[in-house]
Task: structure prediction
Amino acid sequence: MSLVDELKSAVTPRAALLVVGVFALQLLFITSYVGALHDPKPTDVPFGVAAPGQAATVLTERLEKLPGDPLDPRTVADEAEARKQILNRDIDGALIVDVRGRTDTLLVASGGGTVLSSALESMFTKLEATQGRTVKTVDVAPASPKDFDGLSAFYLVVGWCVGGYICAAILAISAGSRPANRERAIIRLGVLALYSVLGGLGGAIIVGPILGALPGSVAALWGLGTLVVFAVGAATLALQSVFGIVGIGLAILLIVVAGNPSAGGAFPLPMLPPFWKAIGPYLPPGAGTWAARSIAYFKGNDMTASMVILSVWAIVGTAVTLVMSSLKRKPEAEPIASELGEARP
Result:
């Protein structure tokens, strides 16, 4: 057999296409991660200003004109209102001006991301110095001492996402690349649901009672983890049911390549470039990270949108999987049937 014949035999057209797809996925991975994380800087950070009379308006207008638009300032009534809005996750920080002295108070929330709170502190230390004033930083929702850089929630959600798509991928290809019938799809979804419950519980126990990395309700984290794992797994099953084995690559593209760098983990959303900042909240890693931090540090506030997004992923993924499994296929197009035939002696 000639070298050309050996090459054709060793690398089929289908394998060549898959290799090209992997190559494209690799380049997209590098582009997405480096593009999102190589130059973090705050942009349009929701920020409160509390000062008496016209001083609040003057300061707000001044902050709006800062180069690069790092802040999206708005006036708040007083410190109590600023603290409330920070805990409700309406704003990421606030400046409380003391007109009777030379020291103002900067409120931050490192539980939402220590990089952002540090950036705000650095920014206002310099801004206040130009006015001959100093600033005192108060952390309204501090990250746990065992939660370095506030990353534990992100890593927890990444682990849940990885479990979701790997479990779904294994279930999908265990007996062929497409679900043969509705009954098999229901079984796979049932197994995925059980796995999601166990995976959610395991993650919540590890980051809570075992490592002490995240405070907050273990039960709430368990529920969130169950939803994250199932949402990612159901989406993977749906993509695989439509596109075959290529669908697993598409799941990785959505969850890993696009979802992880835009999740607001290493750098909170206000520090990401516009594209990643826009898509992050609507992908499972971003929605899950936001909800996990809300549970751990913000008394469970402002979780509704994230939970709805995760639920949509779970419901749509389940529906597509069931619909595709119900479609009649020609016997010769059924990978499971052909595989079973090949396995007979």
